[in-house]
Fold Aldehyde dehydrogenase family protein.
Amino acid sequence: AAPQAPAEPAGKPAGGLFGYAPAPESPAAAGDIASSYGHFIGGQFVDSSGSEALKTVNPATEQVLAEFARGTAEDVDRAVAAARAAFADWSALPGSERAKYLFRIARIIQERSRELAVLESIDNGKPIRETRDVDLPLVAAHFFYYAGWADKLDFAGYGPNPKPLGVAGQVIPWNFPLLMLAWKIAPALATGNTVVLKPAETTPLTALRFAEICRQAGLPKGVVNIVTGDGSTGAALTAHPDVNKVAFTGSTPVGRAIAKQVAGTRKKLSLELGGKAANIVFDDAPLDQAVEGIVNGIFFNQGHVCCAGSRLLVQESVQDELLDALKRRMGTLRVGDPLDKNTDIGAINSAEQLARITALTDAGEAEGAERWSPACELPGTGFWFRPTLFTGVSQAHRIAQEEIFGPVLSVLTFRTPDEAVAKANNTPYGLSAGIWTEKGSRILWTASRLRAGVVWANTFNKFDPTSPFGGYKESGYGREGGRHGLEAYLDV
Ligand code: TAP
């Protein structure tokens, strides 16, 4: 049955900013994608001031899914003005009232999770098993979690009555489109900010569907605005003089450009950038369990994961045993149709990303590392890459230093724990790491020496909205998630 629009929130003032009625239409079915989309500004879908349209394709079939507007500086200006106009009333609402909207959004996401999971898989290429069991539950959990904070900000540790910043300009990547949106929008709204968000060029559809959910939830106009486009649209947003807060997730080069742009302004900035995580396997680790963690660490979401365990550091004495088991397990991975529930590895998100992965793996071979992949079948059309591992990798190799952002694992070895730590820390990044060992003391010893924002022990790629996430070094600064995630949106 189609979920019903929820009742109006209690205590809602009539008319004005709050006079917006929930959209009457029933939620579209999963496959119901419009042929073209405008922006979502001031609570309505509007045409762009420009005439340029971009296309989003299904990376598993290369078919065009929809056209969408390439946001101009004028579009961004309109969206920021709408967010500014909404800010006074939204920030003045009691936290308990803002929480009701967030709880409502979270519930609608749960109700529409199948539709959203399918849409995300079609637009991004990721397996439906992941969108259904990982992305969507985490998206809803994030809204539920920050809804809980909205009326407790006085107790968040930032003193009494902490103030929102104003209008947040948020730019997100394509690897977890809806989850990155949730990481950005939920804490911003809970703390009383209003938002203009730009989704990535290759994955705009779930953000646009989220705009419908904002209408269904009766969210006041202008509190959330979505402007689609490319890098120029993102740059217009982060450069806009009436934006108070810039939140960016994406590549380190773009993050660096934004940091320069924001320097000397009064904007508060948080950056979640790239990574090159080490997954460290000690000789006492339960190897079967470690193999599962390594596979999850690098092949989850096609390796399009900033915190992917893309470097395996294995203790020399167990290298042969571990690699034999890992290769056997990689041989069972199924690459193919993202909508097939048995698929382990879906499509690479774009032709450009496939070209980047191909170039870096070619460099790995040229530099002398040994490449191995199981002989799995790949579909004829679409963008695909076999799960791949490289042995004989040295620390100076590009595949040991640069983020590949694909299903490619670089294997290095170590003899002592000190050597493991030194090698793990020997990259410009510092986002995450994994440790596999039976010894609790070794977990603590190693974790305290790793320059990584997140360290997993005997697991990998585990996320929870209560837990802060973010990097050291060139992986960025600021934290998202948990109580720490509030700070990015408060004047503390
Ligand atoms: P980017 O090229 O950096 O793009 C990220 C977003 O920024 C996109 O929406 C992009 O628009 C936009 N953008 C591009 N140029 C811009 C500019 N000059 N000013 C403002 N915005 C601009 O990264 P990507 O290729 O989408 O994502 C992959 C990278 O993101 C990887 O390096 C990955 O590690 C990192 N990442 C990090 C995290 C965390 S949590 N640390 C999470 C996910 C991804 P277009 O899409 O139109 O180019």
The first strand starts at residue 36 and ends at 37.
